[in-house]
Fold this sequence. Notes:
With 148 residues, the chain is mainly α. The chain has a single domain, classed as Four Helix Bundle (Hemerythrin (Met), subunit A) (Up-down Bundle). It is built from 7 helices and no strands. The chain has helices at residues 2-28, 33-64, 68-71, 75-90, 92-99, 102-106, 115-143. Helix 1 packs antiparallel against helix 2 (33-64), helix 1 (2-28) packs antiparallel against helix 7 (115-143) and helix 2 packs antiparallel against helix 5. The protein is elongated, with a radius of gyration of 17 Å.
Amino acid sequence: xxxxxxxxxxxxxxxxxxxxxxxxxxxxxxxxxxxxxxxxxxxxxxxxxxxxxxxxxxxxxxxxxxxxxxxxxxxxxxxxxxxxxxxxxxxxxxxxxxxxxxxxxxxxxxxxxxxxxxxxxxxxxxxxxxxxxxxxxxxxxxxxxxxx
Length: 148
């Protein structure tokens, strides 16, 4: 079971990273009806991957790996976990923006996003990507038993 949950954890993590990278690429290009739909779909995939990653990760911590006491005494794990929560909270900003486009997209129109909101969404997605890099570093440190 441990191997299955490790696989699912990695699958969700890589899906999440891919979704954030796709969002970053799409939001920086010209906004079209097609790209707006792709942003919404990608954000949905991102949310599902993040939710599953959170649940599977906690199951691994409490049931399938070294135990909660080990993980909750690891600075690398605590940093990784905190950054994951921060990324989750940050992701609310792009999600709210993409959801606000539903009416326009349903009407077959390109959503309108002013330069300031677009810059903010782009900056948030960029911050998410940066945090993911640090999360990966923490995972590598954890794998080597470091920073306990």
